[in-house]
Specification:
The protein is 41% helix and 11% strand. With 352 residues, it is of the alpha/beta class. It has an 8-stranded parallel β-sheet with strand order 1-8-7-6-5-4-3-2. Bound molecules: zinc ion (ZN). Zinc ion binds next to loops.
Length: 352
């Protein structure tokens, strides 16, 4: 008899749940989808590429395989003339994620997100549109057998609450996160209050994803952690945001042009910085930790190892002691080292 698979709640009670996201950016970099519209059409056109990235994140230690349905909703698909492929894309994305997750005993998450349709100037009409979008996507995820739903990158509490209501109606756990580009939600709530309200309405995990890098996300996370009693999520982008540029939308290149979304390379954080973030978030009591747009598999492994885990790809974790130039002196090729970097400093071991 196979042991019963742990659900999200069991996992969160025991330890941090690590979640790799960032599929749109990574598959765009690899040439499988277009920046700008950012719709996940690779699911239908290049399913092997999507599967490969799922497998890579899994090798690096993700606990959850998130179905690639981000922006695979009616509004976005319609805007690029792909509305007729909406259902097929959602079903296939969940199937791809679940096949990878099931073969490794991981959880599969369905994924919905902000629709760009929620409009505070015509609340009732826009709520209907948004609810219909979420309802069909959640139904497709449920029919594919997901374990829970991630609803993310909201800038309005109102829209996030609709997502929560739809997910709860479907009987699944809900992870709901905001993208904190500014200090408050677009409907006027500080993020900690918005998260608290989601929690009071039955969200299983609440928090932040995307938009900010660790440095500018952590202070808001601290406020959320104080206000919320349950599980808190933190999935920053791996970019060097700071006081001048709190979110990656604000980052500018040296010529003043926008770095977002396809010229963010000068601001990418190292794997060590993402490992540091992971430990800080864990020490704050955050237990759903991950990474969003810009994530590379190497970041995910460093985050998993920062949690003390050995993952399949730990077999190839760096061992720079073995490097011929910067390694320890037993492995250094001294002649090359001195030619390329100059004489070794005098030290207790330098003659060995
Ligand atoms: Zn993101």
């Amino acid at each position: 008899m196979t042991p019963k698979k742990e659900n999200l709640s069991d996992k969160l009670k025991k330890d941090v749940v690590l979640v790799a996201e960032g599929y749109l950016f990574e598959l765009e970099r690899r040439g499988y989808l277009k920046a700008g519209p950012f719709v996940p059409e690779a699911v239908l056109k290049f399913p092997d590429a999507v599967k490969e990235l799922h497998l890579e994140f899994l090798r690096m230690g993700t606990d959850v395989v998130v179905a690639f349905t981000y922006y695979g909703h009616r509004s976005k698909m319609k805007s690029v003339g792909l509305e007729d492929q909406l259902e097929a894309l959602n079903l296939r994305a969940v199937e791809l994620a679940k096949n990878v997750a099931d073969s490794n005993g991981c959880l599969t998450a369905g994924n919905i997100c902000n629709t760009w349709e929620y409009d505070t100037s015509r609340i009732e009409a826009s709520e209907q549109i948004v609810r219909a979008i979420f309802t069909e996507q959640v139904q497709w995820a449920v029919s594919g057998g997901v374990d829970f739903i991630v609803a993310e990158t909201f800038s309005h509490l109102g829209e996030a609450l609709i997502a929560l209501e739809v997910i709860k109606k479907a009987g699944l756990p809900a992870v709901i996160t905001f993208t904190p580009a500014t200090a408050k939600s677009c409907d006027g709530y500080v993020w900690a209050d918005a998260c608290k309200i989601l929690e009071e309405n039955g969200a299983d995990v609440v928090g932040l994803n995307c938009g900010r890098g660790p440095q500018t996300m952590l202070p808001i996370l601290a406020e959320i952690r104080q206000k919320v009693s349950g599980h808190v999520a933190a999935l920053p982008v791996p970019y060097r945001t700071g006081n001048q540029s709190p979110s990656f939308f604000d980052l500018r290149l040296s010529d003043g042009k926008n770095a977002f979304p396809v010229a963010l390379d000068p601001f990418v954080l190292t794997r060590y910085e993402m490992a540091e973030f992971t430990m800080r978030a864990r020490d704050m009591g955050i237990n759903y930790i991950g990474i969003c747009c810009g994530a590379g598999p190497h970041h995910v492994r460093a985050m998993a190892e920062a949690l003390g885990r050995t993952v399949p790809a730990s077999e190839y974790s760096p061992n720079l002691d073995l490097h011929p130039i910067i390694g320890n002196q037993n492995s250094q090729k001294k002649l090359y080292r001195e030619c390329m970097l100059g004489p070794l400093p005098d030290g207790p071991d330098s003659d060995e």
